[in-house]
């Protein structure tokens, strides 16, 4: 049997880059030719028989349900107790597994696009070139948390068809229509004919609450979490996955932030459940962003790549409770007829690049690192990092009015040149500074001297057993009053951020999930923006913030259905508040964290609080 080799897309070029750019979705939707081809190609693979290997259904099915082999990879599950999808979660393989996964969908879409381009009777050469340049777009949720209407609200989009006419067509980015609903799907997926985001019920007739989706994403603090990930995490165990990291970090893993996006996009729909998430077409633009953050992080941490670690829940081909590492097969992605891709051979992008790397000498590791650091500061450091509150309040009192003005300043809206060129990435960058972490160059806030370059950063660390809730869930943090109606929690005035568990709902199917009751997730919710917005404090000094948080910080646990989980039902939950003193030594690209202090006393003695009874500042 001949295997379907995963190669990624081929051909094409972007000026100044080794291969064509993947484009940010806000830029991509403005590229008339590429967007028209992408929409038609996605329609084509979505419409293919669900038994065809390169159909959207089969590709989406690699992630979880239906638990059957794809292209002969593992004719039966290697461990009947393991998670039966192929996708690796909760292990060091998380970032590298999803790299060939996105390559696979990218190549299937491009293959369809090349055929479609050949049928154009108007501007054929332009469309054929656009098909060669076509790559999977990414959704940079750290820059602009809400995707464009073409992704979340339009049921029809306008494209140029092969006869050169502008036509409205059903939008395949909005949802996937099952044909048929696979008999393996459990409820509620068995009753939903399409993928759904924020379904209003479990019934077949459920509608979607897109305004809840939008408001939830706006409050998701994705930029702050991403800036912290890129600038403060330097080891693969802490970077790669959502299990307890290196102990000293106060920043989320790539997987942890990714989990948040899944749950905040899905509500109680498909994206919130790993077993069906990849059927929602937004999955692949989310994962292209995850892949881009892998590229940016690896440029900032040259030479750091996968280290060995435990396999967590295991997969269809990887037994639970074993060690995985750089040579573990990333099944089902065949690299040759006899070998799978491994983490060791995805250390660079394959047939695509990201705009941040354009015009860099890729062999010059130090120059690449410096250039990427500058872009990370431009994109994520200036306007909504932990320091944002201070940029414009030098010497003033930290009033909630002045802060809310700052923290709600919208990002520069994406625009494009309107040409077919694929070099418009600059248009979506916040062009507010020269690439230095500007806020640190301003005063660090009231209570400190004008030229002080230090700041206390406050974070709630969450640890909780992955399978204790029995599906995806959120731990929400509030400063002050919590609304009575749990449906209002995610958008409440007092809500400051959440930790998200992205967990298979059909855990009863997964014997290992029972066996592995002890897998503990770890994540972080940053509190500075919330403190600045809600409190009347004028400093982040521990002497002031510690008593404030002791009285005002509260947390709740909620399923994705918004059903409240009583804290007594999650005995493993442990919330510990930490503070980290950040400084900016002259010439440093990023703030430098001092030792993280654990303020156990803030949460000790409350349900889900720290187990340590001292407010000592030790770990
Ligand atoms: N190899 C990185 C990106 C990178 C490129 C050049 C470097 O010098 C460093 C890192 C990736 O995974 O995409």
TrEMBL record:
Superkingdom, taxonomy of origin: Eukaryota
Molecular function GO terms recorded: metal ion binding; tyrosinase activity
Enzyme Commission identifier(s): 1.14.18.1
Gene3D superfamilies: 2.60.310.20, Di-copper center containing domain from catechol oxidase
The entry's keywords: Copper, Melanin biosynthesis, Metal-binding, Monooxygenase, Oxidoreductase
Biased composition range(s): Low complexity: 406-421
Pfam families given in the database record: Tyrosinase, Tyrosinase_C
GO biological processes: melanin biosynthetic process
Names of required cofactors: Cu(2+)
Residue ranges of the region described as Disordered: 406-425, 584-619
Reaction catalyzed: L-tyrosine + O2 = L-dopaquinone + H2O; 2 L-dopa + O2 = 2 L-dopaquinone + 2 H2O
Domain (Tyrosinase copper-binding): residue spans on this chain: 89-106, 280-291
Family: Belongs to the tyrosinase family.
Protein name as annotated: tyrosinase
Organism: Gymnopus androsaceus JB14
Organism ancestry: Eukaryota, Fungi, Dikarya, Basidiomycota, Agaricomycotina
């Amino acid at each position: 049997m001949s295997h379907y080799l995963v190669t990624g897309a081929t051909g094409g070029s972007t000026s100044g880059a080794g291969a064509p750019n993947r484009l940010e979705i806000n830029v991509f939707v403005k590229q008339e030719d590429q967007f028209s081809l992408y929409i038609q190609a996605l329609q084509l693979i979505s419409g293919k028989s669900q038994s065809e290997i390169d159909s959207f259904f089969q590709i989406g099915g690699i992630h979880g349900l239906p638990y059957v082999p794809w292209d002969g990879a593992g004719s039966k599950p290697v461990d009947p107790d393991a998670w039966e999808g192929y996708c690796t979660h909760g292990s060091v393989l998380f970032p590298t597994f999803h790299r060939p996964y996105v390559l696979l969908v990218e190549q299937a879409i491009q293959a369809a696009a090349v055929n479609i381009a050949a049928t154009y009777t108007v501007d054929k050469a332009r469309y054929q070139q656009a098909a060669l340049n076509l790559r999977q777009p990414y959704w940079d949720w750290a820059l602009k948390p809400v995707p464009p209407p073409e992704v979340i609200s339009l049921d029809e989009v306008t494209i140029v068809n092969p006869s050169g006419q502008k036509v409205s067509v059903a939008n395949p980015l909005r949802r996937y229509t099952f044909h048929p609903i696979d008999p393996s799907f459990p409820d509620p997926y068995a009753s939903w004919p399409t993928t759904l985001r924020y379904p209003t019920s479990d019934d077949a007739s459920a509608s979607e609450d897109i305004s809840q989706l939008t408001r939830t994403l706006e409050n998701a603090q994705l930029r702050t979490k991403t800036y912290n990930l890129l600038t403060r995490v330097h080891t693969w165990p802490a970077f790669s996955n959502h299990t307890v990291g290196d102990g000293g970090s106060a920043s989320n893993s790539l997987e942890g932030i990714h989990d948040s996006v899944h749950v905040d996009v899905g509500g109680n729909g498909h994206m919130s459940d790993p077993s069906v998430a990849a059927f929602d077409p937004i999955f692949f633009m989310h994962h292209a962003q995850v892949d881009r953050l892998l590229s940016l992080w690896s440029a900032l941490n040259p030479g750091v790549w996968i280290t060995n670690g435990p396999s967590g829940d295991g997969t269809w081909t990887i037994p639970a409770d074993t060690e995985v590492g750089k040579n573990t097969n990333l099944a089902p992605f065949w690299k040759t007829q006899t070998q799978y891709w491994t983490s060791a051979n995805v250390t660079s992008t394959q047939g695509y690049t990201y705009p941040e790397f354009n015009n860099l000498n890729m062999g010059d590791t130090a120059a690449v690192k410096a250039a990427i650091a500058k872009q990370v500061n431009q994109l994520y450091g200036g306007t909504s990092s932990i320091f944002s509150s201070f940029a414009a309040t030098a010497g003033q009192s930290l009033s909630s009015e002045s802060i809310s003005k700052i923290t709600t300043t919208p990002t520069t809206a994406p625009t494009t040149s309107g040409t077919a060129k694929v070099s418009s990435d600059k248009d979506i960058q916040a062009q507010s500074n020269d690439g230095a972490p500007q806020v640190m160059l301003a005063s660090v806030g009231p209570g400190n001297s004008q030229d002080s370059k230090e700041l206390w950063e406050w974070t709630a660390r969450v640890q909780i057993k992955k399978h204790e809730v029995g599906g995806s869930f959120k731990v929400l943090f509030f400063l002050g009053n919590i609304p009575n109606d749990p449906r209002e929690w995610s958008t409440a005035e007092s809500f400051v951020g959440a930790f998200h568990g992205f967990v298979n709902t059909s855990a009863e199917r997964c014997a290992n999930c029972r066996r592995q009751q002890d897998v503990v997730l770890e994540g972080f919710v940053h509190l500075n923006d919330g403190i600045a917005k809600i409190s009347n404090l004028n400093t982040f000094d521990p002497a002031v913030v510690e008593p404030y948080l002791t009285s005002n910080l509260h947390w709740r646990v909620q399923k994705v259905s918004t059903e409240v989980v009583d804290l007594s039902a999650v005995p493993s939950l442990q919330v510990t508040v930490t503070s980290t003193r950040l400084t900016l030594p002259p010439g440093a690209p990023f703030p430098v964290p001092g030792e993280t202090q654990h303020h156990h006393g803030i949460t000790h003695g409350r349900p889900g609080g720290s187990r340590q009874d001292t407010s000592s500042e030790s770990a």
